[in-house]
Amino acid sequence: MPRLVKIRLTPRSSRNEIGSTLPDGTLKVKLTAPPVEDKANEALLDFLSQEWDLPISSLSILRGEHSRLKIVQIEE
To answer: Which positions ≥6 away from 32 have C-beta within 8 Å?
Structure first.
């Protein structure tokens, strides 16, 4: 069964990192990639696949492709 993760993305940060978890369970993620031409979305999936040791094909953005608030689906 797929898992869903809420993410609050901060593009154009000084480094790539997973920050704190907000009270509603949203995970804060900072990326150096700019929010143009899907670069931040691609960088987010690539970064999460490395951090969580998952193949990038198991991650997808369900909602929020053009927003800072995203819902990422993890297929296990």
So the answer is: 12, 13, 14, 15, 16, 43
Query: Half-sphere exposure of 24 toward its Cβ, with a 13 Å CA cutoff?
Result: 7
Measured distance CA(24)–CA(36) in Å, rounded = 28
| Tokens coding 75 | 């297929």
Residue-wise pLDDT tens digits, 13-48: 999 999 999 999 999 999 999 999 999 999 999 999
Please tell me the pTM assigned to this model.
Answer: 0.93
Please name which of 43, 48, 38 lies closest in space to residue 18, comparing C-alpha atoms.
48
